[in-house]
Amino acid sequence: MAHLVLKIANLIAFFFLLGVNVYSVLAPVKDAPLAHITYISPAYFTFYVWFLIHLLLTGFVIYQFCISEEEIIRAINWHFVGVALLNTLWLALWDDDTLFLAWIVVLILACQVTYIYREVHFGFEYDNVFTWKYFFIHLPFTLYHAWIVVVVVLTTFAALTPEKTYYEVTRDDTTTSVPDSPNIIVQLVVIIGLLFLEMTSVTYIEYKRDYAGGADSVIHWSALILAIIATIYLFKPWVVEIFGGGKKERQTADINTIYQYYHLILDW
């Protein structure tokens, strides 16, 4: 009976979270992904990963009623309900421009998601990844955990660094918005943030041997090689400055490399 109550609570919490996220996207007042753009913010389409996460979580809240292994639900316990409520609170604070409180909430949220991920990933064995159990129990929280790390970084930058600004350039009667180049401190902080995300992805591949790292050797080595290339590419401005190109090239490369690096990571 207790497990049935927990499963129903998971179902209600999920649809509450889903409704809030759908409203935040469709609301005419503000589009959440476009709010608080900083110099580390990814392209808009990146936020569509929420669609995949919600799709997998839909499978989770339905599949939980079909499995006989009650220990999995017992391991997740009420933490999923907590995750749904915290995620909703974070989104409300984000939309309300209360960024420092949103930052605190997202750190707590990340701890909750990490707990579920640890229980699901390390507490249960998955001999075959092509099973309903893997797709609807393990995969939703693996993807959720990976994405919440990105959300923590984005919220940290939104709370502690200036927003991205633009200036207008007119050429041939066409006006375009061009981003201002941030100061050196912001550039360094962005690089640290990118390196943190890079090292996190390498940890997934090498240490935790999660889906991208453990499912197939081709995927494993391709992801690792691309991560190494992207990290090396980050130091292009200094190489250009030392071996040629002059100050003008270095200044152009400083900010461009950050964007090119991020796009390279997103593309693969």
TrEMBL record:
Q: What is this protein called?
A: 7646_t:CDS:1
The keyword Cell wall biogenesis/degradation is annotated on this UniProt entry: no
- Is-annotated flag, keyword Transmembrane? yes
TM regions (residue ranges):
5-23, 43-63, 75-94, 100-117, 137-160, 184-205, 217-235
Superkingdom of source: Eukaryota
**Entry keyword set:** Membrane, Transmembrane, Transmembrane helix
